[in-house]
Amino acid sequence: MATGPKNEQSNVSNKKVDNKKVIRNLLFVVVGMFGFGFALVPLYDVFCEVTGLNGKTGEQYVSDVPMQVDTTREIKVEFLANLNADMPWEFKPLTYSVRVHPGEATRIEYVARNKTDRDITGQAIPSVAPGLAAAYFQKTECFCFTEQVLKAGEEKIMPVVFIVDPAIDKDVHEIALSYTFFIKPGSEDARAVTESKSNVALSTPLTQY
After folding, report:
1. What would the pLDDT profile of 138-182 be if each residue is shown by its tens digit?
2. Domain extent for 1
């Protein structure tokens, strides 16, 4: 039986409707995947905070029961300092490594200096290696808990008090604690000041301790 013009037009119309449905469904999938990707970021951060995955060290450690110090073990803890590319500060640990017994509280200090002629707000992000040790690296005091404001040319000593949980794997003998300072959004224009030779703060090196 021959196909008439009306049937052909009907088939073309149906194909167009089907194509529109397919395109619409694909758009829903793309939008859903895009939104799911954004949702994964905070979920991943929460997961890292809880498990210590990826070296995240969690929030301030508070406990009414003191940890039992394990004097039979000793762990070397190294301290590192980094700056985000846009951060116009100098930043370093005053102590580069210590040996501690699991369970004992230890205090060390970092120092930072603002090299610009204006106030700068920064936020330090901590990381612990090996990553699985992060869940056992407890900080009772840390400059990373809050934003740090340094006035023009100001230098600040910033303490860290930490405890390595005695429950940490006995095969862990060394831990590295690293901080990266990021500039707070809105302070990016301070970069231009760091290149100005007229800035007195720039000619003063970080204090040698």
Report:
1. 999 999 999 999 999 999 999 999 999 999 999 999 999 999 999
2. 1-51
CA–CA dist 4, 6 (Å, integer): 5
Whether 142 is covered by a domain: the verdict is yes
